[in-house]
Design goal:
Blueprint lengths: L1 H10 L13 H10 L19 H4 L3 H15 L5 H11 L11 E2 L36 E2 L7 H12 L5 H11 L7 E4 L6 H11 L4 E6 L7 H12 L2 E6 L2 E5 L37 H13 L4 E2 L9 H8 L5 E5 L5 H14 L3 E6 L2 E5 L3 H13 L1
Parallel strand pairs: 3-4, 7-8
Antiparallel strand pairs: 1-2, 4-6, 5-6, 8-10, 9-10
Length: 384
């Protein structure tokens, strides 16, 4: 303690003289640790105990006013009554579209000749939203009310396309957009050519002359059908086709400001209920003969194995070649999925043609049928 008092005396030489020391030595030590010699020019308050100025904590009046305005805009104003009405008037519902075809969820994967036997949701619920479209939803499509003038439509498309492309121009476009690293690409899956895909195509055409479309899954069984619907519904032209890759050209005189109005579907509608694809007894066979054909197909080797979301461009030709030597054919569709198996069977029935007699455990059994029976059924479908 004597050493501590000696140190106190040495530090207090520069300070005013203290007439009396504190009675308690511990109080003296605490005062020594908490105070330090200050000059008259320094602030009398230490930094930890300095009073905070209230003016610095408040934001400027202008910034605070801007924040309140931004919050009101984000909320849509008080109670949102006037702003909501203004937005509805700006959107101009219901939307009127001059497109000459019926609106469907999928254009390439639906057959208008086959009528559904039921619906999984009421047909009055339109996937375009209530009161957003001037067409009535029937459960499968929204048909166009006005008649189509084919000659006028063909003239409009000729004006958009302009002069035909030269071989050098086509080669330049193909080299620019055909590669897999192209940013102007649309993936076409098992839904085929869908309605909302048309909007994506026109959005790409704003900044690019062509769009690369990569097709995968069930639609690749019939690429001619995909190409037809892409050209017919979008108004473009396919300038390149290699296996499952397509290039869709917009035309020389395409104007993004005069693009057609395409109302979007807000959700995917439920698929209707169609008649069963496989009958208990195949047409032209008895019950025992149908059972024998199924067992024969299950015991045979598969002609090919299909993968999920694969490229099925050569499946139809392989099945036709197999039917030259075999009566029953099996396709191994492991990991493809039950719904995709049925879709593959429906397309093969119409394209080969053939009769599907078994769908189970992701195996497809196809019977080539009798020649007179197959050709007569296909002729009836074409006539219908």
């Amino acid at each position: 303690m004597l050493k501590l008092f000696a140190c106190r005396r040495t530090t207090s030489r520069g300070l005013p003289k203290i007439t009396s020391l504190p009675s308690s030595p511990m109080l003296c030590v605490s005062r020594f640790l908490s105070h330090s010699p200050l000059s008259d020019e320094e602030d009398i308050y230490d930094p930890p105990f300095s009073p905070t100025s209230k003016t610095l904590l408040k934001p400027p009046a202008g910034r605070q006013h801007k924040k309140k305005n931004e919050q009101k805009k984000a909320r849509g104003g008080k109670k949102g009554s006037s702003n909501v009405l203004d937005s509805r008037n700006a959107l101009n519902f219901p939307v009127k579209s001059d497109l000459p075809f019926d609106f469907k969820y999928s254009y390439s994967e639906t057959n208008p000749d086959v009528k559904p036997i039921g619906f999984r949701e009421p047909p009055r619920f339109s996937p375009f939203g209530p009161g957003r479209l001037d067409r009535k939803w029937t459960g499968t499509s929204a048909p166009a009310e006005e008649s189509v003038d084919s000659e006028k439509l063909a003239e409009q498309r000729k004006k958009v396309f302009g002069e035909p492309l030269m071989k050098e121009e086509i080669a330049e476009l193909v080299e620019k957009y055909r590669h897999s690293d192209c940013s102007r690409q649309i993936n076409l899956g098992k839904g085929g050519v869908t309605h909302n895909m048309l909007e994506d195509i026109h959005n790409h055409w704003k900044r690019a002359e062509a769009v690369r479309i990569k097709c995968l899954g069930v639609p690749t069984l019939d690429m001619d059908n995909v190409c037809f619907h892409l050209e017919d519904k979008s108004g473009g032209m396919i300038i390149y086709r290699q296996s499952n890759v397509l290039l869709l050209y917009r035309g020389r005189n395409y104007d993004p400001k005069n693009r057609p109005v395409i109302p979007l579907m807000l959700w995917k509608p439920y698929a209707p209920i169609y008649p069963k694809l496989v009958k208990p007894v195949a047409d032209g066979l008895t019950f025992d003969e149908t059972k024998e054909m199924r067992n024969k197909g299950l015991n045979s080797d598969p002609i090919m194995k299909l993968t999920r979301n694969g490229v099925y461009v050569n499946v139809v030709d392989r099945v036709r070649d197999a039917f030259k030597t075999k009566e029953v054919v099996r396709l191994d569709c492991a990991h493809v999925g039950t719904s995709d198996c049925k879709r593959i069977g429906v397309k093969l029935r119409d394209l080969v043609p053939c009769i599907p007699i078994f769908f189970k455990d992701e195996q497809i059994i196809l019977w080539r049928g009798r020649n007179d029976q197959i050709y007569s059924s296909s002729a009836v479908e074409l006539a219908a």
